[in-house]
Design brief:
alpha/beta; 5 helices
């Protein structure tokens, strides 16, 4: 398995809402290639557009260089299939934490496992 510090590390994020988008943004800013999936059609590309708008606000405020914003945005790839996420070195599930904290936790999805995993809602 790749280390998060290696250049070939890829993070798969399931759920492109506020939390999944936030995870994608932070990961991309850290230089991590990120695949973003949501089972709602159009949600992952919409999340990338929100992230792009956030980056542009940061650029306008002088808190992020334009080139850094462009490079980070290029690292985020919306995908249409959960199968693609299953091939990543790590998976972030942005839909499980609330169920887990309220003790109504469904079984962990098959793509969540391995050495690196993030669960959130």
């Amino acid at each position: 398995m790749s280390s998060p510090d290696s250049t070939d590390f890829v993070l798969g994020i399931v759920g492109a809402g506020l939390m999944g988008g936030g995870i994608a943004q932070v990961a991309a800013q850290a230089g991590i290639r990120t695949l973003l999936f949501d089972n709602q059609a159009g949600a992952a590309p919409a999340a990338k557009e929100r992230i792009a708008a956030t980056f542009q606000r940061l650029v306008a405020k002088g808190k992020m260089a334009d080139e850094a914003a462009a490079n980070a945005l290029d690292l985020i790839q919306p995908v249409e299939s959960l199968d693609v996420v299953e091939t990543t070195a790590a998976a972030a599930e942005a839909a499980s934490l609330v169920a887990r904290t309220t003790r109504r936790a469904p079984p962990l999805p098959s793509y969540v496992g391995g050495e690196y995993c993030v669960l959130g809602k």
